[in-house]
DNA sequence: TAGATTGTTAATCGATTAACAATC
DNA sequence: TAGATTGTTAATCGATTAACAATC
């Protein structure tokens, strides 16, 4: 793989391709084409080919792409050919929901730590997770060398939590709090904001 | 307002601006500038001005934007100067979490209907919502003229549910199922997929 | 071989940024 | 008035699409 810089927007599409490929595989398909894959995800065939070709030649002229092979390659590229331990901070409805979430494991992630600051919640068990005191968070995450965390606390506490996570060595943060958090350059943040998506759509109503 | 077509990507940024403005207002600020707002949301000042100017002249040279005024205008544009009733389909962890979600009301939405197909869940009460049988869904939504729905069922059932929602007159769907659903042109769909966001970030680890 | 589909280059399209006159 | 910041135009940048030779 050449080390030219791949645009972020292309990386963001790879998980969508992977999701579609998983679906095709579940339906028993062996090969697919840029056309078919594009139809699944609502993207042009040309763009699918261009995106994939950034990383190598994974298809065959006349035949298309072997679904299993392409999936494996995309997983390697995204570094999800392994399982990442994830810390969840905030055990309200969202945090609890995520700790149950079946979809993570098959897609490369496993919730292994849960934190909250509410004494009534600390020590309780959700699935196989025991909720720990947030005051232990930095030391526990550091010790386990966890790199991925999810923030599911109220907006007012999100920045403070983010700073602790950074101190603990976290490099990827999925933030459910409806506030933009400031972190060092080498830490990635993505946002989940269902209300923002709804607001986007009402424009067209 | 001229009726030129506004790019979808601009519409998608308006909720972010609104979120930042709400935050500024909560902190007691009265006015802001394209520079300040841009810093909040991580977008250039030029782009903020260009986006906003698509809809009118809401700022003052030398002074900037009145936060309250701009918020009101953006809410009008996004049609969230009212409260939209929302139907939630699927009362698993995600659906339950959403029915509790405090963030909706102040941002233009209210969960008013909940549906599931599990006899053990039907009839139970979550907050002030009674879970109804999914077989009643089309008629209930039609009767109440609800336009916005959230799909929180397993991927295998999502397409079927989407078709019923369309039949019931729903025009905006927020889909938590990890599958792309096919709906008529006049129905909007947005996706929430936390694992996809995590996968995106691991690339950079 | 004939048909299909890739990988890639060039052309097009659209979005972002820079610059600045207008004006509060 | 002097300073600040908007709204807008033109320039730049980057992403998408179209086209096609290569080849399975």
CATH topology of the largest domain in chain A: Rossmann fold
The CATH C-level name of the largest domain in chain A is Alpha Beta
The portion of residues forming beta strands of chain A comes to 15-25%
Q: How many strands, what sense, and barrel or not for the largest sheet of chain A?
A: 7 strands, mixed
Number of domains of chain A: 2
Description:
- Two copies of one chain form a homodimer.
- Chain A is 41% helix and 20% strand.
- The first copy, chain A, is α/β, with parallel strands linked by helices.
- The first copy, chain A, has two domains: 70 residues, Winged helix-like DNA-binding domain superfamily/Winged helix DNA-binding domain (Arc Repressor Mutant, subunit A, Orthogonal Bundle); 114 residues, Rossmann fold (3-Layer(aba) Sandwich), CATH 3.40.50.720.
- In chain A, the strands form two sheets. Chain A has a seven-stranded mixed β-sheet with strand order 6-7-5-4-8-9-10, sandwiched between helices. Chain A has a three-stranded antiparallel β-sheet with strand order 1-3-2.
- In chain A, β6 and β7 form a beta hairpin.
- Chain A starts with 7 loop residues before the first helix and ends with a helix.
- The mean pLDDT of chain A is 95.
- The interface between A and B is large, with 56 and 56 residues.
- Chain A binds a DNA duplex (24 and 24 nucleotides) through α3 and β2.
């Amino acid at each position: 793989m050449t080390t030219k810089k791949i645009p972020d927007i292309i990386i963001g599409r790879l998980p969508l391709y992977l999701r579609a490929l998983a679906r095709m595989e579940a339906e028993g398909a062996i090969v697919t084409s840029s056309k078919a894959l594009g139809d699944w995800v609502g993207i042009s065939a040309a763009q699918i080919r261009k995106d994939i070709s950034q990383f190598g030649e994974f298809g065959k002229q006349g035949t298309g792409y072997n679904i299993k092979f392409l999936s494996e390659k995309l997983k390697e590229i995204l570094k999800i050919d392994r399982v990442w331990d994830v810390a969840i901070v905030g055990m309200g409805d969202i945090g609890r929901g995520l700790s149950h979430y079946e979809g993570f494991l098959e897609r490369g992630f496993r919730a292994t730590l849960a934190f909250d600051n509410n004494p009534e919640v600390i020590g309780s068990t959700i699935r196989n997770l025991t909720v720990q005191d947030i005051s232990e968070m930095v030391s526990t995450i550091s010790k386990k060398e966890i790199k991925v965390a999810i923030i599911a606390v109220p907006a007012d506490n999100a920045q403070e939590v983010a700073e602790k996570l950074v101190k603990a060595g976290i490099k990827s943060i999925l933030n459910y709090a409806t506030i933009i958090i400031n972190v060092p350059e080498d830490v990635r943040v993505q946002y989940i904001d269902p209300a923002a998506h709804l607001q986007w759509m009402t424009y067209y109503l």
